[in-house]
Amino acid sequence: MPKGYWVGRVDVIKPEGYQAYGVALAEVLRKYGAKFLVRGGTFEAVEGKARGRNIVLEFKDHATALACYRSPDYQAAAALRRPDIPESLRGPLAGVGDDTMSVPSFSS
Would you call 36 helix, strand, or coil by DSSP? Predict the structure, then answer.
């Protein structure tokens, strides 16, 4: 079964708000078995508007990624960051299965 993902791109305006969110988020992510694949680090924006911080979280499947996002626990955590870090999450996204990992053809 394909994995599920969250992709976040944020600009931290008030670090204290982001810290409170991070503490609350850690508990929620443990509960749903999420794993960080990307968390901060060096990056280069080659297209579009850059953000200061980027994250990618992996879940066992799309349903779990969606359930985590929709959970009251996550929504309470997200309320802590929204005044300081609006519109940061892109997803939840469904991954592709192992049998679809070939490079797609874009020819017409």
Answer: strand
Q: What average pLDDT does the segment 77-98 reach?
A: 73
Closest CA to 85 of 5, 8, 6: 8
Domains and CATH numbers, the chain: 4-97 (3.30.70.100)
Tell me the average pLDDT of the chain: 82
What percentage of the chain reaches a pLDDT higher than 90? 39
Q: In what order do the strands lie in the sheet with 89-94?
A: 35-39, 53-59, 4-10, 89-94
Of 57, 50, 49, nearest to 8 by C-alpha is: 57
